[in-house]
Specification:
It is built from 18 helices and nine strands. The chain has 440 residues and is α/β, with parallel strands linked by helices.
C-alpha cells in the first residue's frame, strides 16, 4: 500500500529531520588521520612542525579564509604581512580572535563557522576567553577526536586528498606504506603538476627514479604512466583530482610548451589510466594562484573558466568519468547545462569562494531545476578537522530550504511526495550519487 503524501505544512520539518539524520560521505577534503602527524601536542609544544592533521581553535582561526579577512580590518600598512607571518601560530590566532571576534561582530561565513563549531562541540563562544577554548582542544586525543568530530558533523566517510608531489606528504607515504590505512578516510590522488607544470613534475619524477626531461617525449610518457600507476596503487586511490587555472583549455589553444605538455599528460597518461582502472578524474577549475603573494595561501583569486573544455573532454573520452566543480559563480549555469548533455559528467560542490549560504542556495536551486537530484550538492573542502562541523551544519540548512521549496512546488503541481521519497532523495544527494559514480 502506498504511503500517504506529505502535506505542505509537514514538508519543512520532515525534510529538515531527514537531512539532519543522513550521514554524509564527504567526497573532497584536505584532512588527514593522526598518523600523518599533528603540529603540536596537548601542551601546545611543537612535536611535528610539518604535521598534516590540523585541528583546534588556533588552526581554525589561522585558516586562510580568516587570515585574508583580518587584513581587511587591520591592513598591511598597520600590520605588515611579513610581521604577521613571523608570529607564532598562537599569536596569529590571538590577533584574528581579537580583531574579528572581539572588536567586531563575527558576521562573515568563515567567522560564523568558528562560532557554529564551538557551540556544536559543547563550548561557549560567548565566554570569549580563548585560553579556555585552547584548554578544551589540549585534552583531545587525536584519534578519538576524529570520531568525535565525525559524530557531531554526522559524516560517515572522509575523502583525503593525497599529493605525491608534496615532499612532506610523499615522505610519509614512502616511510610507512600503511599510513593511509584508516577506514574513516578514503585516499584520493592529486596530480596538479602533471597537468599544469610538467618541468616541476619531471624534476619530482626524476628524483624518485622515473627519469624524465623537461620536454615531453615517449620516455616521459612511459615514466609518468609508471609513476601514476604506482601511486594510485600505493595509496589505493578512489579517484584522481587536479586543480586547474581558469585558463585551462582543451584542446590547448596555444603552442606554449607547458600547456602542450599538460595536454599530452592528460591524453596519454591520466585519462587512459583512469579509464583502465575505472577511476573518475575530478577537475576543480578556476583558481588564479597568488594574485597577492605576500598573503601566501590567502593570496589566491578566482577566474571564469571555459566550460567547452569540459564538454570536449566528456565528448572525446566517453569511457572516462569526470567529476567537475568550478570556482566562479559565472560558470555554474553553463556547467549544469553541460551535465545535461553528458552522463559521464558529475557536477559537485560549492567550492571555496562559493561556500557561502546565499550562493549555495542559488546554485543548488538551479542544479535541482536542471538536473533533478543527479548531482553532489556539497563537499566540505575542509583543511582543519573541526571545519567539518560548521560546513556540513550550514550546508544541511541550505539544502533543506531548497528541497522544501521544490517539494512544495511539486505538491502544488499535483505530484505526491512521501517521507520515503524525501529519504531516497537525501540519501542520493549526500551519499549515493558519489558512491554510485565511483562504482560505475
Amino acid at each position: 500500500m502506498a504511503l500517504p503524501s506529505l502535506r505542505v505544512d509537514q514538508l519543512e520539518s520532515v525534510v529538515a529531520r531527514t537531512i539532519a539524520a543522513q550521514p554524509v560521505v564527504d567526497m573532497h577534503t584536505h584532512l588527514y588521520p593522526p598518523p600523518f602527524g599533528t603540529p603540536v601536542d596537548g601542551a601546545f609544544r611543537v612535536v611535528d612542525p610539518n604535521g598534516l592533521m590540523l585541528f583546534g581553535i588556533d588552526e581554525m582561526l589561522t585558516y586562510h579564509y580568516l587570515v585574508a579577512e583580518v587584513f581587511r580590518v587591520v591592513p598591511a600598512w598597520e600590520m605588515p604581512y611579513e610581521n604577521f607571518f613571523a608570529l607564532s601560530k598562537r599569536e596569529q590566532a590571538d590577533h584574528v580572535w581579537q580583531n574579528l571576534f572581539l572588536r567586531r561582530t563575527p558576521l562573515s561565513e568563515a567567522c560564523r563557522g568558528v562560532v557554529t563549531t564551538l557551540s556544536a562541540l559543547g563550548l561557549d563562544p560567548q565566554e570569549k576567553n580563548i585560553e579556555k577554548l585552547r584548554n578544551y582542544f589540549a585534552q583531545a586525543n587525536p584519534g578519538q577526536y576524529v570520531d568525535r568530530v565525525m559524530e557531531v558533523a554526522n559524516v560517515s566517510s572522509i575523502a583525503m586528498t593525497n599529493d605525491p608531489f608534496d615532499a612532506n606528504e610523499r615522505a610519509r607515504w614512502l616511510r610507512d606504506p600503511m599510513i593511509g590505512n584508516d577506514g574513516r578516510f578514503r585516499p584520493v590522488l592529486r596530480i596538479d603538476p602533471l597537468l599544469v607544470d610538467w618541468p616541476a613534475a619531471a624534476r619530482t619524477l626524476t628524483e624518485l627514479g622515473y627519469v624524465s626531461q623537461p620536454q615531453v617525449g615517449a620516455a616521459e610518457i612511459d615514466c609518468a604512466k609508471r609513476f601514476l600507476w604506482d601511486w594510485v596503487h600505493r595509496i589505493q586511490a578512489s579517484y584522481v583530482v587536479a586543480t586547474l587555472p581558469p585558463t585551462f583549455r582543451y584542446p590547448a589553444e596555444s603552442n606554449d610548451p607547458t600547456e602542450v605538455a599538460g595536454q599530452t599528460m592528460l591524453e596519454k597518461v591520466v585519462l587512459p589510466l583512469c579509464e583502465d582502472l575505472g577511476l573518475p578524474l575530478a577537475l576543480m577549475i578556476g583558481t588564479r594562484r597568488q594574485v597577492n603573494p605576500p598573503l601566501r595561501n590567502s593570496g589566491d583569486f578566482v577566474g571564469k573558466s571555459d566550460i567547452m573544455a569540459v564538454a570536449r573532454l566528456c565528448q572525446q573520452f566517453p569511457n572516462n568519468k569526470f567529476m567537475v566543480t568550478m570556482l566562479s559563480r559565472e560558470n555554474q549555469h553553463e556547467l549544469c547545462v553541460a551535465a545535461r548533455k553528458f552522463d559521464n559528467l558529475m557536477v559537485f560542490g560549492c567550492w571555496w569562494f562559493l561556500n557561502n549560504p546565499s550562493l549555495i542556495e542559488e546554485i543548488t536551486t538551479m542544479r535541482i531545476e536542471l538536473l533533478g537530484t543527479s548531482f553532489i550538492p556539497q563537499h566540505s573542502d575542509a583543511r582543519v578537522l573541526d571545519q567539518l562541523v560548521y560546513k556540513w551544519s550550514h550546508a544541511r540548512l541550505v539544502v533543506s530550504r531548497v528541497l522544501t521549496k521544490k517539494y512544495k512546488d511539486l505538491l502544488e503541481a499535483g505530484w505526491p511526495v512521501t517521507g520515503d521519497d524525501v529519504a531516497r532523495d537525501v540519501r542520493d544527494l549526500f551519499r549515493d550519487n558519489f558512491l554510485e559514480f565511483l562504482s560505475r
